Amino acid sequence: MPSPAGVGSAAAVDRLLEWFDTDGADFPWRRTRDRYAVLVAEVQLQATQAARVVPFYREWMRRWPTVEALAGASLGEVLRVWQGLGYPRRARHLHDAARRIVAEGWPAPERLTDLPGVGTYTAAALRCFADEEAVIPVDTNVARIMARRFPDGWPGTPDGRGWAVGQALMDLGRLHCTARAPSCDSGCPLRDRCPAADSGTVAEVTPKLRPQGRYQGSLRQRRGLLLAALADAGRVAVDQDPDAAASLVQDGLAVRRDDDLVPVP
Ligand code: SF4
Q1: Residues in Cβ contact with 163 at an 8 Å cutoff, skipping those fewer than 6 apart
Q2: pLDDT tens digit string along 163-187?
Q3: Helices (H), 33-108
Q4: pLDDT 10s digits, 203-243
Q5: Which of 166, 193, 203, 263 is in Cβ range 3.0-4.6 Å of 128 for a Cys bridge?
Q6: What are the structural domains of the chain?
Q7: How many A from CA of 14 to the centre of ligand 1?
Q8: H helix and E strand count, the chain
Q9: DSSP letter at 30?
């Protein structure tokens, strides 16, 4: 006999799916099950908000609609098109992954993390969003929902709804069960019998995030500024920021030529 909480949790999954079927966001990467397109979206979404990713994703897929097209592009061009998304190492990894896939084929599902830049989360996202397996990709948003709403564990994915469950959880974490201001009593579709909301412990049970360092003045910001200057001018003096320049060269994101930094070919 399932416990009353178990019954409530299974019903919550049904409600989540009903809500998603009606109100789910219509992102371009939700209209495809192509593994390459899903990989592009997931890598772009790793550190950038969905609404900001949309134009970058569209432009990327217009230029390189297939994994073969991306593998045939130069890294320099790939980095130029990535400008504005941040964390350019992601672009280099995506480019490396495309070349590996073209040379060797896609790894088996359990070996997707062999691809450059593909960690546990992205591998699970490929299985869920491209292959439609009942695998839940757990990022910080989903981990938060699980801790708050399903502390006894995920009650199970209805047959054939793996993709929808994964996407619904993404929407719930983005729109309702947010880190700082969850809308428990103003529209959350899972409010009924939510253990954290009922007990007033939403903040307490929320997994703590590692504090992020200041962006202003950080090496990350300086690397971004230098890469942007490089994209504009085609060449910048290493003296402009020697540490950031060395870091970009080390990561294969720029090339040193004499006293200047130039784009990778
Ligand atoms: S009621 Fe609050 S804590 Fe519970 S799932 Fe909804 S937003 Fe999250």
Answers
A1: 33, 128, 129, 132
A2: 999 999 999 999 999 999 999 999 9
A3: 35-45, 50-63, 67-72, 75-82, 89-104
A4: 999 998 776 777 778 888 888 888 888 888 888 888 889 88
A5: 166
A6: 4-26+135-205 (1.10.1670.10), 34-130 (1.10.340.30), 219-262 (no CATH)
A7: 15
A8: 13, 3
A9: G
